[in-house]
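Weekly modeling sync, notes
Attendees: S.R. (lead), two postdocs, one rotation student

Agenda item 3: backlog of single-chain predictions. S.R. asked that every request posted to the team notebook include the full sequence so nobody has to chase files. The rotation student volunteered to paste the first one in as an example of the format we agreed on. Action items at the bottom.

Example entry:
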Amino acid sequence: MGARTGGTPAELDDIVLHDIDSWHHHGYPWEAWARLRREAPVYWYERPGIDPAWMVTRYADVRAVSADPSTFINGGPQLRYAGQDYNARARTAKLRKADLHGWDPDVADDMIYLDAAEHGRLRSLMARSFTPARCRRMAAELDATAAEIVSSFDAKLAEGGEVCLVNDLAVKLPLATICSMLGLPASDWADIHRWTDAMFDVDTMRWAQPGEDRRALRKRLHGEFHGYIDDVIAHKRAHPGDDLATQLVQAHPAGDPLLHQELHGYLKLLISGGNGAKALCTSSPAAPRSRSWPSNSRHRGGRSSGSSASSSDHQPRHRGHHHPHRPTWPAAQQRSSAAALPGQPTSR
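Predicted structure, as returned to the notebook:
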């Protein structure tokens, strides 16, 4: 796959797409992406500290890549475009986890790392659950949960106490929703918040116990989360219910049940999705903030008392009135054979 560039390689050398620290200081690189779309829609991006890769920036080309799983695969060395140091740590951590739990290090962490038929097989386990009747029931449950959360938030405001729009309002609904869908106690949302927040923000010390350093904090929270998922699997095997976790644990997609390791990955992905939804409500130093209603501002008695940037989510979030496209972390797929994209020459 080769690059067609309008500018010369030297003219594009100043473009930096992967450095999150620069996002915090200079904002998300909208113009850099736009420039690549204009001048080099398929661009060989090679910078210190990160594995080189083709940057594909036009819709038709991205769609062509996504629609060709025989050429572009998710199950390669990396799925998310991250620094070499991060990738090295991630590989080491996966090997340690496999050794600790007796798992196969070659089994994908979750279905996101799978391709085509295998991905569809696992995804269909959940997709079949969203029948019209189930969705109507879920809607009624969500209405009741949302009303309860807002009522509690209003009560705190009426008392004149300090409340946080994210932690006291926005974070609860998606996590409580995940709990409801999976047949977990709604009160588990607070623990899930701790565990998944530590997953998404590797630098957080928010949940540290006295005298605990970051490494000890992360080890403890990861261990708690792992044990929690173990308990969910055991409980749903012994006490099946009408919920998504039971359906997953009891599934036999190819005549055999999913491996314990596969169940862990799938449930972890589903549970973490609640915090991913919460993250859309959380501002980041790299993201444009709403001037009228900062998403993580603290309010006292209904009036804003200022806002502070949250570092709990490294991925910047879009506010609809600032830009028509939501910023995303560049996804990486591996090319397994020669490929031609629409209108693009191939050579590399």
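Discussion: group reviewed the output briefly. The beta strands are 42-45, 53-56, 72-73, 162-164, 298-300, 303-304, 334-335.
Action items: rotation student to repeat for the remaining queue; S.R. to check formatting next week.
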